[in-house]
Recover the amino acids of this structure.
C-alpha cells in the first residue's frame, strides 16, 4: 500500500484512537475513502484522525461506530482520548510523560499513578464509580491507563524519576490493610530502583511546604521543561516559561527540606508495620 504511515499508538491518546480506527477499518477491508463514504466525511478526514493529526470528536466516534458496527467501542475510546474519565489536560500530559527523560513529581493525599499497585488504583476507581463521578467502563479505562503509564519505569533508557510524597499519602488508608500493605511495599521497591529517588515530605514541614496540589515537572528529550499541575476540576500543562522555572526552583527547595531517601524508606516501613500490627 502506497504511503501508508506507520502508526505509534503509544505516543498519545489521539494516536491510540487513530490506530484502533485503522485496525477496525482494515478488518473490513475498506479504504479510507470507503469508510469516509459510510460516515459522510472525506477520506482525508479519516486519514487525519488515523494518524493523530486531528482529534476525534464524539460525533465522529459515534458515526464511526455506526459505520463499522462496533457498538460504542470508539465512543468510549473517544471519551478517554478527550479525558472523559480524566481531568481536562491530563491526556496531553500523559503523551509527554511517555517520552520524558526526567520526571519530577509531588503528590498529596494519594499515591501517584506511576507508583500505584493495581489494587490501589482499582480501589480509587471503584470509589469514584460509587460516588457517581465516572462510569464502570471509565473506571476500567482509568485503571488501564495507570498500568500503561507505569511502563515508562521499565522501558529501555528509563527516565530518572524523582518523587516527593506528602506524608498524607502514607497515612490515608485506601482500601484498608489488604491494599495498603502491598502498596507500601511497592514504594520501597520503587526506591530501590537505580533511576529513582523517593522522599517523604513530613507533616512537620507545615507551612514550609511549597505546594498544596499535585505537581509534575517533565524534562523532555530536547531538554525543554514542562510542568503539569492539577486543581479539582482540570489539569494544566505548561512548557518553558518564567512560571515553569519558578516551580522547578520550588521543587528543589521541597527536596532539600523533605526526608532523605533512607529516612523516607524507614518511615514507609514503620507505616507498613503499623498496618500489620
Amino acid at each position: 500500500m502506497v504511503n501508508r504511515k506507520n502508526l505509534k499508538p503509544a505516543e498519545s491518546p489521539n494516536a491510540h484512537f487513530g490506530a484502533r480506527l485503522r485496525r477496525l477499518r482494515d478488518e473490513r477491508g475498506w479504504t479510507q475513502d470507503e469508510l469516509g463514504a459510510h460516515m459522510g466525511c472525506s477520506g482525508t478526514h479519516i486519514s487525519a484522525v488515523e494518524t493523530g493529526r486531528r482529534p476525534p470528536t464524539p460525533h465522529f466516534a459515534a458515526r464511526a461506530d455506526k459505520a463499522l458496527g462496533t457498538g460504542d467501542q470508539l465512543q468510549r475510546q473517544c471519551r478517554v482520548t478527550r479525558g472523559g474519565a480524566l481531568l481536562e489536560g491530563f491526556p496531553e500530559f500523559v503523551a509527554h510523560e511517555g517520552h520524558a527523560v526526567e520526571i519530577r513529581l509531588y503528590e498529596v493525599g494519594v499515591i501517584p499513578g506511576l507508583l500505584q499497585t493495581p489494587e490501589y488504583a482499582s480501589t480509587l476507581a471503584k470509589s469514584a464509580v460509587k460516588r457517581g463521578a465516572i462510569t464502570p467502563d471509565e473506571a476500567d479505562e482509568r485503571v488501564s491507563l495507570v498500568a500503561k503509564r507505569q511502563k515508562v519505569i521499565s522501558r529501555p533508557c528509563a527516565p530518572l524519576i524523582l518523587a516527593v510524597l506528602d506524608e498524607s499519602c502514607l497515612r490515608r488508608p485506601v482500601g484498608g490493610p489488604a491494599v495498603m500493605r502491598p502498596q507500601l511495599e511497592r514504594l520501597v521497591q520503587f526506591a530501590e530502583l537505580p533511576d529513582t529517588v523517593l522522599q517523604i515530605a513530613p507533616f512537620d514541614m507545615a507551612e514550609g511546604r511549597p505546594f498544596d496540589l499535585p505537581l509534575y515537572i517533565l524534562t523532555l528529550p530536547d531538554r525543554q521543561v514542562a510542568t503539569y499541575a492539577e486543581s479539582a476540576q482540570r489539569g494544566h500543562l505548561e512548557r518553558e516559561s518564567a512560571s515553569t522555572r519558578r516551580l522547578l526552583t520550588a521543587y528543589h527547595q521541597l527536596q532539600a527540606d523533605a526526608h532523605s531517601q533512607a529516612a523516607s524508606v524507614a518511615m514507609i516501613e514503620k507505616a507498613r508495620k503499623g498496618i500489620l500490627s
Notes: The mean pLDDT is 88. The first strand starts at residue 102 and ends at 107.
